[in-house]
Amino acid sequence: MRRLARAAGYAWKRCRRSLRGQRDPAAFAACQARLRELHRAEARHELAVVYVDECRFSRQAPVPYAWQRRGQSPATLPAVRGSGGHSVLGFWQAHAPNQPLQAYVRAGARTADLFVLAVTDFVQSLACPTVLVLDNASIHRAHVVRACHAEWAAKGLTLLFLPPYSPELNHIALLWHRCKHYWVRPEDYQSDHTLLQRLEHVLNRIGKNYTVTFA
């Protein structure tokens, strides 16, 4: 079978999960420009830009492979989630010199109520006006979250929602990619316990032993 597929011009390679075809290019470009403007203000020490997102780490294989014709773009599949594992909610100042990360780890999925608790805890440590960049996940748009916007704003936190289907604009996605594919090692997936141990080890050293360079 493998020999026949290769003879027909196919190769066994990774499929890509992508939402690019569903987004609004104009809204994407406008938000991209807005983020560049915010980072220039951040470089002048006028404010902080913090990216927030949840990432699930589990022993379930996350990367699908399939036979695909050589020379063509990788096949795309719907971006779906499984269950279980460890959920990490991270607040990351990606473009600060030491890239500080504030992370909350728990088993299973995170709810809107837990998101509110995490943001409320995060705002207690704000040292300057802060823009929190986040996607349109249902827990970010829930009524219980919207009810806290004014309270957070009074403490110096402004929320900036990304356009739908624009994960590339959330820079913390790159941090999660590095964690999953480089910093959490294959042997760390032996059990849920070893995975959690390694995950906490890495998260506690972001900005010191583990850094991300932006062009």
UniProtKB/TrEMBL annotation:
<feature type="domain" description="Tc1-like transposase DDE">
    <location>
        <begin position="49"/>
        <end position="194"/>
    </location>
</feature>
<dbReference type="InterPro" id="IPR036397">
    <property type="entry name" value="RNaseH_sf"/>
</dbReference>
<dbReference type="Pfam" id="PF13358">
    <property type="entry name" value="DDE_3"/>
</dbReference>
<protein>
    <recommendedName>
        <fullName>Tc1-like transposase DDE domain-containing protein</fullName>
    </recommendedName>
</protein>
<dbReference type="InterPro" id="IPR047655">
    <property type="entry name" value="Transpos_IS630-like"/>
</dbReference>
<dbReference type="GO" id="GO:0003676">
    <property type="term" value="F:nucleic acid binding"/>
</dbReference>
<dbReference type="InterPro" id="IPR038717">
    <property type="entry name" value="Tc1-like_DDE_dom"/>
</dbReference>
